[in-house]
Amino acid sequence: MSGVRPGYVRPLDIRNGRIDMSHGSGGRAMAQLVEQLFAAAFDNEWLAQRNDQALLPRPEGRIVMSTDCHVVSPLFFPGGDIGCLSVHGTINDVAMSGARPLWLAAGFILEEGFPLADLQRIVESMARAARDAGVPVVTGDTKVVEAGKGDGVFITTTGVGVVPPGLVLGGDRARPGDRIIVSGTVGDHGMAVMSQRESLAFATDLVSDTAALHGLVAAMVEAVPEVRALRDPTRGGLATTLNEIAGQSGVGMTIDEAAVPVRRQVEAACEFLGLDPLYVANEGKLVAIVPAERAERLLAVMREHPLGRDAALIGEVTEDAHRFVQMRTRFGGRRIVDWLAGDQLPRIC
Amino acid sequence: MKYIDEFRDGTLARRIADAIAAEVEPGRAYNLMEFCGGHTHAISRYGITDLLPPAVRMIHGPGCPVCVLPIGRIDLAIGLALEQRAIVCTYGDCLRVPASDNLSLLKAKARGGDVRMIYSPADALAVAEAHPDREVVFFAIGFETTTPPTALVIQEAARRGLANFSVLCNHVLTPAAITNILESPEVRKLGTLPLDGFIGPAHVSTIIGSQPYEFFAEEYRKPVVIAGFEPLDVMQAILMLVRQINEDRAEVENEFTRAVTREGNLKAQALVSEVFELRRSFEWRGLGEVPYSALRIRAAYAAFDAERRFGLETRSVADNKACECGAILRGVKQPRDCKVFGTVCTPETPIGSCMVSSEGACAAYYSYGRFREISVVAPA
Question: Which member of A322, A333, A335 has the closest CB to residue B376?
Fold first, then answer.
């Protein structure tokens, strides 16, 4: 008698298994990886359609779309991993338009030899982040590259959201006199990742601030729809975001060094590594530009939200044809807060 | 932050600023050179010039190790990476310094050279141990502060019998550079560079002590105040210099008593002289050939000397003609006097070395202070 069991596939050996080229070849191994790992974790009605695309209902209102690639090293860091980071990153990019994020798509580039256990950990973290945010991953793709041609895993996520009627936000809308608010301490993510670097490891209790900010944004735009611009200061940190907005709007800015919230640990780590917290990445913070008369109200709303508890008013928009971002130093002088030159830190998001 | 905040206190700064303003004598100019790039950086980063009266002028000196590194030496490191296929380890600041053929170590890396950024010479040693089949070269730069760690890794490599590790030594000496400036025609004959006093380097002096500066104070009648790198240190040093100048004194004073003694770190000095000896002459960007201004590895450690190991010869390469780094490093010109400053030469695409390191005068001006060059004033 034959022992053949039609349709039987031996389950993935998550504990000891590794990605090999067959997981990207379009054959049975790939189908199995998709079913047992990705589909199982992300599980939602659109993914359950099992088509090459997700068929979605038409949302009411103006649609925003954003995409973000994630190449962080190390893949796991205090407070998060590349999985939840890739969900938060794109949700935040969508939310900075004031939009409510609806769906995500995810693309994975896996390196041959990558442990399945690590992949599962990452995918589950991603699924948890998506679930917590209420933004499902509705479609995706996986490719495998040969060993040495990737760095474990790269993840690209794309998000779609819808902007509430009447709301218009943009980096080009800052006007002289507007106030600048940051939603909390800066530099936490970048320094948490740095602390784990092989070549640089230092002991700290610092954790990444990675978080989905759309809840905070919803509360903000509901209370103060006059807000001009929102942006999350990720790579390049607060300094870069301020320069971007100043450039787009054709204005200058002046911030107060003493008003910018920075954790002691971040300040200390930056001090001995010769870095400036203003340039260190964040993954759960936003900058808001708001008309002066609405600043106090916005600040109050933000501080009521857990992700905006440490929100602070850090400065104001000025008239300046040169579009300089300047800082009043704690010391009593002034200086430019310039664009980042070169690369302060490699691969942090 | 504990210990640091105290040295960045705005109220204290204002108090010292008031004292300086009260003590400068009418009609008198105070041209002070801060030798060290660390001070240049602090002055720009904290906006110290905003707190000084117009009579006090800060002149930026050549104490930025990356800035004074001549092109020929970087060419050697690039050659090691691209032609000898060695792993070249160096500090982050060195990576972007422009060299010949429109290259830098960073661009050499993009062309397939194995160039690695390290934070400590010990990291280079670890790389050598991890790659016994490859040549690993540590491209060592810096003044007296960074020399003892280089000496230590050379000794350590010898102790471990590492056969694939060597050091391309570019360590230079502070007193020789100060002498060079004081002997320059601009200071001695032409008088185009008025110099009334020096702020002496902090970290260098923790190693060599304050004694070596006594010669300048005596011989050239220039007051020297050794100062720490925090903004209040710099302010205090300026006040001390103003007082010396007013009282016609030319002494070595030590503001940085929390780390500097007259003798310095004798142990470190012994270590350095055990591994290194004086070079007869060394080329500095900006200053040219300066006699007895740099160190080389002693014959006893020849096996770890990349110059001997690879038979390297330094070729002198002229700077870009439009670049004023040379004059800026001698204090003769300011970044704003350079035609390419802020136009062709920016931190992203540096032409000269002073635009590369954050300690370089041009980079400090550009990144922190260029609003001053075009007189845009922030609201108070």
Answer: A322
Which residue ranges make up each domain of chain A? 21-163, 179-336
Q: Do B44 and A335 count as a contact with CB atoms less than 8 A apart?
A: yes
In the block, which residue shows the tokens 């260098």? B204
Q: What is the pLDDT of residues A136-152, one digit of tens each?
A: 999 999 999 999 999 99
Range of the domain at B138: 71-174+264-309
The count of CB pairs under 8 A between chains A and B is: 83
Query: Would you call A341 and B347 a contact, using CB atoms and an 8 Å cutoff?
Result: yes
Fold of A21-163: 60s Ribosomal Protein L30; Chain: A; (3.30.1330)
Q: For residues A104-118, give the mean pLDDT.
A: 97
A residues 265-294 lying closer than 8 A (beta carbon) to B = 267-268, 271, 273-274
Contact B181, B330 (CB under 8 A): yes
pLDDT value of position B2? 65
pLDDT per residue over B130-151, tens digit each? Answer: 999 999 999 999 999 999 999 9
> Is it the case that residue B1 has pLDDT exceeding 60?
no
DSSP B27: T
3-class SS at B249? coil
Which pTM was predicted? Answer: 0.86
**A242 band by pLDDT with thresholds 50, 70 and 90:** very high
Instruction: Say if residues B86 and B137 touch (Cβ distance below 8 Å).
Output: yes
- My answer on whether omega of the bond before B70 falls inside 30° of 0, hence cis, is no
Chain A residue at shortest CA distance from B235 = A331
- The ipTM value here is 0.78
Q: Does B8 fall in a domain?
A: no
Among A203-212, B69-78, B350-359, the least confident range:
B350-359
Question: Which chain A residue has its CA at the smallest distance from B347's CA?
Answer: A341
* A312: three-class secondary structure by DSSP: strand
- As a whole number of angstroms, the distance between CA B150 and CA B141 comes to 9
The bridge status of strand B295-297 relative to strand B136-142 is: unpaired
The 3-state DSSP class for residue B100 equals helix
Question: In terms of CATH, what superfamily is A179-336?
Answer: PurM-like C-terminal domain (3.90.650.10)
